[in-house]
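Methods, example record. To illustrate the input and output format used throughout this study, we show the complete record for DNA replication complex GINS protein PSF3. The sequence lines were provided to the predictor; the line carrying C-alpha cells was produced by it.
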Amino acid sequence: SFVQGSKLEIPLWLAKGLHDSKRKIISVELPKIYKEAWRTVFSADANVVDLHKMGPYYYGFGSQLLNFDSPENPEIAQTILQASTFISRFRRIMDSSQNAYNEDTSALVARLDELERALFRAGQKGLNDFQCWEKGQASQITASSLAQNYGKRKFTDMDG
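The corresponding predicted structure is encoded as:
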C-alpha cells in the first residue's frame, strides 16, 4: 500500500487513466526536460539540443503531457511549437535531407527525436524518388501519400 504523497514512476497510459479531473487520484510531476530550466536551454539554441538522448518522443510525449492539469501547460505547448525549437530544427532537417545526399548523416540523425527522424527519411525518399525519375528510372512522378491523403480529406470535408 502507498501513503499519500508517495512518488513513483508509472507508464503514461496508466497515469492518463488514473488522472481523472473529477477524482484526482494522482498528481503528475513534469519530467525535467519539460520544466522551465530546460525550456530556457531550447530557446537559446534549439539546433544543438540532442532531443533523442533526452527523450526519443520529445514532441509526442510533450503533447500528451498537456492532458494533465499542469500550470505550465501553456509554456510546454509554446516550447514544443515555438519557432526557435521545432521550426528551426525542421528547416535544418529538411535542408540536410536534401543536400547531404550520399553523405554520412548519422551524427545529425542521432540527435533527432522520432518525429524528426521520420521527417528526415521522408525528405531523403522524396529526393531519391525525384532523382530516379530524372534519370529515367521511374516512368512517372506520383503524388506522395501525404498529398493524396490531404486531397481525400479536403474532398470529404466539402461533402459535409
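Annotations derived from this record:
Residues 12-154 form a domain with the Methane Monooxygenase Hydroxylase; Chain G, domain 1 fold (CATH 1.20.58.2050).
The mean pLDDT is 78.
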